[in-house]
Predict the structure.
Amino acid sequence: MRTEEKLLPRALRGAPTDRHPLWLMRQAGRYLPEYRELRAKAGGFLDLCFSPELATEVTLQPIRRFGFDAAILFSDILVVPWGLQQKVGFQEGEGPKLDPIRNAAGLAALSFDGMTQRLAPVYETVGRLKQDLPPETTLIGFAGAPWTVATYMIEGGSSRTFEASRRFASEDKAGFETLIDLLTEATIAHLDAQVRAGAEVVQLFDSWASALEGEAFERWVTAPAKRIVEALKEKHPKLPIIGFPRGSGAHYLGYAKVTGVDAVSIDQDMPLGFARDVLQPAVAVQGNLDPLVLVAGGQALETRVRAITDALGRGRFVFNLGHGIVPQTPLDHVAKLVELVRSIKPGRT
């Protein structure tokens, strides 16, 4: 029976490691030919997410190919609205489509009752992965943060302006708070179920945190994340939690301190000096290679990898991208990234 702590949890708590942990957001996805082949046979995207056999296979594909130090569950942040009985679909080339919630009637149609039962296939996938992953590989569960998930539920899909969400939050504060509270409780339940099924680390994705500033950021990004972290830590005191308030700049430090996350994942726009001098003394840092530098490869890739590890490699650090890997990423560039990161030892270049 394996009792040695795995590389990723060790790094997150600041214990010495002989190399930097490496995994990539969206590492299971369209850049992999084996994923595209399986996706073509699977039917709809949610069918793939809710098939434990297929979702397990997709999660394992990048581990087999590249040997990353962690596998992140193949699923989607919008399974939670689906579990709350909002209509959710995915159209090829267009992304998610939801029946938008714009008023009290839309809120009233949501139901927390039975959510985890509806999402049981997700937790079955986690359980299968716990059995099938290599023993040294950490299993990461995840969920979308309440603000980001709420924007999809209100806008009816992706948005650049978040106009409907902003109006809802301003014109019906009580209703918007009801939605955020519901999503907070749903996120706690969803992540708790993943941990109980075998997830060893969880990440909270707030992909649209950058849309908020000031008091709104504190109220709709930081405060719900704090509730989620506190609830999960009460149930699972040793659970490492990574927060990703993407694009939130100087808000990162306050987010880290207030929420109690063990690590923050930083986007590619975060200055390395700020991450090293301001964030790392307070929290572990994960990131932050630009996904398009990975696409470019060559000397640009090597230079940036060394800049990141030079800046962050002496503190609590996990190598990752600043956002998800993009479909046009060449496979040999990913292989080269793995080689580069593993050739650089912590504390020296």
